[in-house]
Amino acid sequence: MNRMLPHLLLLFAVASLACVFLAFEGREANAQAAEPPAGTKAAGLDPFKTSCAPCHTIGGGKLVGPDLAGLKDRVPSREWLLAFLKNPAGTNDDYAKKVKAEFGDTMPAQAALGDNVLNDLIDFMFAGGPGLTVKKLRGATPEDIDLGRRLFTGEARLANGGPSCISCHSIIGLTGLGGGTLAATVGAKHTDLSNAFNRNGGEAGLRASLASPQFLVMKQVFADKPMTEEEVIALTAYLGDVSKTTAPPPGRDYFVIYGIVGAIALLIALDLIWIRRFRNVRKTLVGGSK
Amino acid sequence: MNVRAQVSMVFHLDKCIGCHTCSIACKNIWTDRKGTEYMWFNNVETKPGTGYPTQWEDQSKYRGGWEVKGDRLRLKSTGKGRIITNIFHNPHLPTMDDYYEPWTYKYEDLFNAPAGTDQPTALPISKVTGEYIDIESGPNWDDDLGGSNIYAANDPNLKDVSEEQRQQLQAVERLVFFYFPRICNHCLNPACVASCPSGALYKRGEDGIVLINQKRCRAWRSCVAACPYKKTYYNWSTGKSEKCLLCYPRLETGQAPACFHSCVGRIRYLGLLLYDADRIDEIAKLPPEKLVEGQRDLILDPNDPNVIAAARKAGMPEQVIEFAQRSPVYQFVKVWKIALPPHIEYRTLPMLYYVPPLLPVLGSTANQVYENGVDAKAIFHAFDQQRVPMGYLASLFSVGDEAKIRYVLRKLVAVRTFKRAETVGDIPMAVALEALKLADTTEAEVEDIYRMTSLPTFAQRFVIPPMHREEAIEAFKDPQDHKREVGFGFTASPKRGL
C-alpha cells in the first residue's frame, strides 16, 4: 500500500490537470487563432497581402503605389504614417503632397482595419516585409487574350464560381447588347483614356487588382471566390489588348432597340397564343352595326 | 341507382307579362350591396334579343358549358391542365360593358338646381365610378330602349333561322317578342362547380342547390367563364363571386324564393325531382338530339316502388319522398312533357324548365273582317304560322328539334280547345276531342294541365319540402345552439383574400 500511494497521487494529479486542460482547451485555441506566436509569421503579413499588396510591393518595384522598401527611413514619423493610412485624402502636409504629386490621390482610407491591425502593418512594413514573397506571374500569350475575352463574356466560367465580368461591366463594341451597367465601362479606349488597363497601373497593377480586388463591391463579391492566377493573367491580357484597339465611336444604344423589337415580338406571340380569347361582345356588336 | 332530390323549377312563358317584379324582389334582397350593383341573379330577357350579358348564348365567344372530347366531357373554358396558364388572367371573362355599367341618377339636382328657364334634370352617374356616364346599355336593354335592328337581329338563336324569316321578323307589322325570365338553373352537371380551382362551389346534397362558399372563393372567376348561362357574377368589392342561391334561407323556412313568391303572372312552379345521380355522366355525353329525352329519363318516378325503396336506402327522409310525389315540376316535365330545358346543348343538365309560349300569328283584315293566320274559322291559331319561327324556339329549348316544340304547343292548344268546347261551346266537342288525340293527351290530363296552369293555389305551385337542415347542422354542432347563434346578415362579412 505504501508503495502504491505515490503512484495513485500522481495518477490523480495527472487526471486533474487533464481535466483543467480540457476545460480551457477551447479558450486556448481561440487565443491562438487571434495571436499567432511570434516568430512563425509576422502579424502584418496577411493584412498586407489582402489590403496593400494589390498596389504596393516591398522591394518589388512600384505598381499603382510606391514601393514600400525603406519606408521607415522615408516617412516623417510612425504617427504620421498611422494618420496617413487612416485618412490619406485628409493628410496634406509637404510629404503627403509630394507622394500624391507622384502617384495621385488614389490611396483608399484604411481606418476600417482598426488601430491594432494598422500598427501590425506598420511594424511589418518597417521590418521590410519579413516572409513576403512576391510571386512572379508568367507573361501573357496570345491565347490568353482569347481566354480572357471568353472569361469576360461568361462563355468560360470563372473556376471558383465568381460572376463573369459582363454581369456588371461592359466594353464598348463587345457584343450587340453590351454588358452590365452596374459598373463603369472598362477596357476599351474611348473618348478619354480612363480604360481599365491604363487606369490600374498597367499589367502589374491590373493583375494585382484582379487577384485581390479593392473596389467596394468587387471586394465583397470576390472575397470567397477569388480568381485563379491563370484567370488573372488571361483577363489582364485581354483588357490590355482591348485598351490598344480603338473602340467604334459611340453609336446607337442597341439595348433599347432590341428591347422594343423584343417587346413587340412578345406581344405578337401572346396575341397568337391567346388568339381565341374573349373579346368585347357588345361594343363589337353595336359598333359593327353603326 | 343513386337516388337524389333536386329542387327544380318550371317557368310557364305563356303567363309571363315581363313586369320584372321578380328581378326587383331579388335585387332588393340579395344584390343591393356595393360590388353587386350590376348583378341580376334573376333577370327577364326580351326575346328575340341578345340578353344579359350581351349574346350570352353565343358560346363560341363566351366558351361556357361542356363539350364532348373523345368519350369524355370537358369544360370549354378551362380544365385541370389548361387552368395553369390562365389562372392569373382568365381570357374568357365578360367585361363590364358586356353586362352593363350600373348607374343611378343625381336626384339631388332636381331639388338643388338654381332657378332657371328650363327644367332641372337628374343626370345619370355610374354606380361604380361615381362619375357622370352616358348610358349605353342595361340589363334589359332589349326590352326598354334597345335598337332591335342591332340587339334582336343578333340573337344567337336566329343562326338556324332562314334569311327570309329573319327579314320578316324585322318587318314592323310582324314585330314580335316574348319574355324569358332567367335565374340560376341549379344544374345537375354544373360547369361552374367543375371549373372552380379553389373548390369553393358546391351542389348541396339534400336539395341540389348550387352555392359559392364565400370563405373559400379566391376570385379566380373560373365559374364566371364556365357557366354557359352567365349566372355567376364577380363582386369587385369583396373579391368573391356570387350567384343565385335559390333563396335557400327562405326555402329552409318553408317559403318560396323571392322571385317565385313575387311573380305577378304566377308563371313559376317549384318542386322536387328525384333523379339517378349515377347516370349524370352518361346522359351529359349523349349526342345533342338525344339530350332532352335523356335528361327526362334521368328523372325518376317518385311513385315507383323501386325508386322509393332506393331513395329510402339512400337515407332520403320519408317527407322528401312524399313531397316529390306532389311536385308540380314532375307533372310538367315528366308526365305532361310540356316543359323543356333551356339550351341543354351546353350539357350542364339545367333543372329549370320552360313551357314554351304560344305566340301570336300575323293578323290581317280583309273586307273589314279580322283574320288571324290562314284559317279564318279557327279560334286558336295554327302555331306554325306564329310570328316567331319554330326554329327559334327549338334553338332555345330543344337543341333545334322543332318536333319537340310542336308537341308542346299542340298540347297547349288542345287544352285551350277542349276547355273552350267545354265552357263556351262554340267549338264542337268532336273537334276538341280530335285535337286531344292529335296532341297525344287525354281529357283527364288536359283537365290537370288546365288546373295547374290557370287555377293553382300557392301551395300547389310551390311544393317546398322540409329541408331537414337540422340534420345537416347536427354533423357540426347542436342544432339548438346553431338556431340561437345565427341571426340576420353576414356572421362574417366576405373579405378579399383568405
Structural classification of chain A: mainly alpha
Helix content of chain B: 25-40%
Helix content of chain A: 40-55%
Please, what is the average pLDDT of chain A? 76
For this structure, what is the CATH class of the domain at 358-458 in chain B? Mainly Alpha
Biggest chain contact: A-B, 12 and 23 residues
What is the CATH third-level topology name of the largest domain in chain A?
Cytochrome Bc1 Complex, Chain D, domain 2
* Element pattern of chain A in H and E: HHHHHHHHHHHHH
Count every helix of chain A, treating DSSP H or I runs of 4 or more residues as helices: 13
User: Poorly predicted ranges of chain A (pLDDT <50, ≥5 residues)?
Assistant: 24-37, 190-194
List the helices and strands and how they pair.
The complex is a heterodimer of chains A (290) and B (498).
Chain A: H1 4-34, H2 45-52, H3 71-74, H4 78-86, H5 94-103, H6 115-126, H7 142-153, H8 196-199, H9 202-211, H10 216-221, H11 229-244, H12 254-273, H13 281-289
Helix pairs in contact in A: 4-6, 7-11, 9-11
Chain B: E1 3-12, H1 21-30, E2 43-47, H2 59-62, E3 66-69, E4 72-75, H3 82-86, H4 96-99, E5 103-105, H5 108-112, E6 124-126, H6 141-144, H7 163-170, E7 178-182, H8 191-195, E8 201-203, E9 210-212, H9 222-226, E10 232-235, E11 240-243, H10 248-252, H11 258-262, E12 268-276, H12 280-284, H13 291-298, E13 299-300, H14 305-313, H15 318-325, H16 328-335, E14 352-355, E15 363-366, E16 369-372, H17 390-397, H18 402-423, H19 429-438, H20 443-454, H21 458-461, H22 469-474, H23 479-485
Parallel strand pairs in B: 1-14
Antiparallel strand pairs in B: 1-12, 2-7, 3-4, 5-6, 8-9, 10-11, 12-13, 15-16
Helix pairs in contact in B: 17-18, 18-19, 18-20
Summarize the structure.
Chain A has 290 residues and is an all-alpha fold. Chain A is built from 13 helices and no strands. Chain A has three domains: 45-126, Cytochrome Bc1 Complex, Chain D, domain 2 (Orthogonal Bundle); 142-244, Orthogonal Bundle (Cytochrome Bc1 Complex, Chain D, domain 2); 254-281.
